[in-house]
């Protein structure tokens, strides 16, 4: 293995570009560039580009470390996770600075809530695992006990949006139940994961318990998920990648969970607080719409369409596109030139298709990776911009006549990750909330998460659930110990 101590200055933070395997930094002969969406001319780092040999080394390290880590009590593992959470809290400024430059999320958001959520993830799962009570009951003359134990090495593959928070969200339950981890961050925003590895090291985790492998998904990611020693796979990303990963998991009979794309409906009923609904709808442009949970399809009751739209425009007009480090900025640039071109392609095809561009519809004239907040009124529900995930600052507007039509439109895509309903009627909220096919439906709010609640999608939006005991049970092996009553003392 090649060992390296090189570090790049990223926002005043020294960041290693190398893998973290078996408690050591490991370089690769090949690299790929990490550039900043804030200014694409800025190269942040030359990042180690892993291959099959790198994947083998990482899985070997995780496999070797697993027995001792799994043998610790939940309380002993909890102590490590709490130390890590404390270190995250102490390094919020550094993590925010790196992630802002690497992914372009608003610096104030990173400081105020996103990075701290990473610490909360580790504390939450540490406490849940330590407080877990085994299920015990008597049946047919036997005493039954369900035991939760570590399963083995877990491969975790995370997306380029909100990379730090999503990495901690997935790594925390795996570590808490006694699994070892190989994290493969997205190649478009890999650097905050490297800072996390430094904090893992400072927290004193045993070598091999937590590993990071950098690289291209089709290369090192494919090798990781194909390794038969891997016992769990957790992925967030596109349905296309999930199909390939799921096929690899199936070959080795490995449990696999996937949180994939979204095309959420944002339903506004005539009895809703239209100001609140319009303001929240304008917030769907946050992070340039690069949020899988966003309610990108505005479904508005026909009788209040004009009143809602007037308010919506007023709130969108208050947005400011700019540098993510500027507190006045509300909409950040997009992650990559290729992604900007992809989003613009959807808009231009919609224009050619005869869909009405209500506002926006082009990249910022000043250049860079900013795209105007865009609203499209499609000529039919079959329009591509309605049916496909765009993952950018592009919303669609449709109207409905009654609850039945609202639910039918909400359920008319192949996605089912989330939905939003605005109404002042509790019975209507319950009917529509139950009727919308999605893993999470918010009523009169958005993106409020209870970490103990199940999270995931239906349809092509995913397989399985994360959050609370749902994540811990997925990461663990569950065993039933059944003892004949009276046969032991």
Automatic annotation (TrEMBL):
Protein name: Aldehyde dehydrogenase family protein
Key word Glycoprotein present: no
All copies of domain Aldehyde dehydrogenase, residue ranges: 30-480
Protein family membership: Belongs to the aldehyde dehydrogenase family.
Organism, as annotated: Phenylobacterium montanum
Family matches, as PROSITE patterns: ALDEHYDE_DEHYDR_CYS
Pfam families per UniProt: Aldedh
InterPro entries, alphabetized: Ald_DH/histidinol_DH, Ald_DH_C, Ald_DH_CS_CYS, Ald_DH_N, Aldehyde_DH_dom
One term of GO molecular function: oxidoreductase activity, acting on the aldehyde or oxo group of donors, NAD or NADP as acceptor
PANTHER family in the cross-refs: ALDEHYDE DEHYDROGENASE-RELATED
Keyword set includes Oxidoreductase: yes
Gene3D superfamilies assigned to the protein according to its UniProt record, in alphabetical order: Aldehyde Dehydrogenase, Chain A, domain 1 (3.40.605.10), Aldehyde Dehydrogenase, Chain A, domain 2 (3.40.309.10)
Highest taxon, organism lineage: Bacteria
